[in-house]
């Protein structure tokens, strides 16, 4: 089975909630193709939804190194950084995501949370106008 077919199967398993099987395939693909951005992003997203934020952060950090132009990956990275208390880095990642995808409401919401946690209330208000 090619990595592309394995990836499609892993995503399908992930969407079906068959997470143990999806994880096995994600790990196999990462072992065979360590530079694969998509598998790292999807595995990070799965871990995030499972509340395994430490592993999700490691995975998304590697994914962003491979593709820093993905607004979705940057947004997830920002949310995970914020949760890890790395608020300045979170804000930078969210700003990068917004630069790519300015109409993404979740990015703006998470940016507001990061600004609030940095006590930058005026900046949070200014960014809404």
Your description of this structure?
By secondary structure, this protein is an all-alpha fold. Helix content is 78%, strand content 0%. α4 (53-66) packs antiparallel against α5 (71-83) and α5 runs antiparallel to α6. The longest helix is centred in the first third of the chain and has 14 residues, at 19-32. The protein starts with a helix and ends with a helix. The mean pLDDT is 93.
Q: Using DSSP, what is the number of strands? A: 0
Tally of helical segments: 8
Distance between the termini: 51 Å
Largest sheet: none
Q: What structural class do you assign from the helix and strand content?
A: mainly alpha
**Which ranges are low-confidence, i.e. pLDDT below 50, for 5 or more consecutive residues?**
none
Pattern of helices and strands: HHHHHHHH
Radius of gyration: 16 Å
Strand percentage = under 5%
**Helix residue percentage:** over 70%
The dominant shape is elongated
- Specify the oligomeric state: single chain
Mean pLDDT: 93
List the helices and strands and how they pair.
Blueprint: H1 3-15, H2 19-32, H3 37-49, H4 53-66, H5 71-83, H6 87-100, H7 105-117, H8 121-126
């Amino acid at each position: 089975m090619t990595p592309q077919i394995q990836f499609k199967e892993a995503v399908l398993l992930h969407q079906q909630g068959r997470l143990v099987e999806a994880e096995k395939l994600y790990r196999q693909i990462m072992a065979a193709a360590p530079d694969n951005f998509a598998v790292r992003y999807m595995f990070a997203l799965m871990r995030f939804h499972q509340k395994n934020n430490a592993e999700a952060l490691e995975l998304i950090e590697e994914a962003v190194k491979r593709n820093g132009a993905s607004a979705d990956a940057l947004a997830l990275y920002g949310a995970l950084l914020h949760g890890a208390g790395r608020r300045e880095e979170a804000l930078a990642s969210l700003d990068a995501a917004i630069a790519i995808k300015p109409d993404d409401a979740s990015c703006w919401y998470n940016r507001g949370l990061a600004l609030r946690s940095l006590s930058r209330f005026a900046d949070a208000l200014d960014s809404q106008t």
